[in-house]
Amino acid sequence: MKKFFRTIHLYLSLVAGVFIVLAAVTGCIMVFEDEINHTFYTERYFVEPASQKLPITELISIAEKATKGAKASGLKIYKSADRSVEISLMAKEGDNKSKQAKTEEKKGRKPGFLVYINPYTGEIISTIKSGGSFFKKVEMIHRFLLSKKGGIGNYVMSYSSMFFLFILVTGVILWWPKSNKILKQSLKVKWDGKTKRLVHDLHVVFGFYTSIFLIVIVSTGLIMAFPAVNSVIFKLTKSKMESPKTPKSNFVSGVEPLDLASLTQLINKVSTNWESYNFRLPKEQDDVISVNVLEEGALENKVNTYYFDQYTGEKLGALLFADRSLGQRIRSYVKPIHKGELLGLPTKILSFIISLLTITFPITGVIMWLNRLKKTKDVAN
What we know:
This protein is α+β, with helices and mostly antiparallel strands. The protein has helices at about 1-30, 35-40, 40-45, 55-65, 100-105, 135-145, 150-175, 180-185, 195-225, 225-235, 260-270, 325-330, 335-340, 345-380, and strands at about 70-80, 85-90, 110-115, 125-130, 275-280, 290-295, 305-310, 315-320. Helix 9 (about 195-225) crosses helix 10 (about 225-235) and helix 9 (about 195-225) crosses helix 14 (about 345-380). Strands 4-3-2-1-5-6-7-8 form an 8-stranded antiparallel sheet. Strand 5 and strand 6 (about 290-295) form a beta hairpin.
């Protein structure tokens, strides 16, 4: 039976090994995305606080002019006085789209910009095109091999992850010792052994120690990659995948939309303990203004969403994290677990170490395979 599992383990590793290494390398880089960005691009995220912030509408106008008329689609505001405002903008519609915008559309991504702006002075600190940041490109390699969702690169990385899960399970089966004496030996690396023994131990022993964590990481990746796997969460919890229907604004001809500066006051009424809030601006005349509010100290996934009439500012409804279905709440933890963000810095460090070790497994595995081939050839001769 172990010979059967060894065959599966070997050939799936040979097929997916390169892509597993690529996913591990990019995963290592993305673990500390926020920390790296805040260290190397401090001026992009942090500003010198002043006495008075400019109105939101003025900040949006500045950003739209700087991006040649692109339309603001959302903005993120932090409670901390020293943070910049992040404004998302969509590129122009029609034949006058830029070459970059058309390229983004071909890749299945919405063309646009992310503008970082000083809320006190209106100075534009940084403008990043869609998919133009370093970490966005790393993410596109990690998920799609720089192709697009539904493209060949997407399928290669997704199915390589599936193969990796089988590799991990078969690896544990192959490792499983027959006796307690062998168990003790299987849990230690013989650092003073010969090269072949050291390579074997690095692959087998470290592989076992990391397998539990890797099975969790890979499984969460598969949930995000395959809709069928994602639906299992909702089937097991017997809960709905869809959120309640979003309400609509009461459109009245001739009535101008609400000044967003007034809406910020309403946010303070629904939540005084917020860390940041993210506006999603309306596209249609009857759309609402959606606001995702992140409470202080909460994980990024635990947002409360509020809906406001774009003309009157009236609160039309809310979707609190606690009110979501059990399946939705469980699903919201998938990405933080996958990225190692669940418990902050400790789990990020652990995730980084696990990803770093993963890079070595295909290498040591190939060396072991080549040594076995050489041994078989010598015996045959």
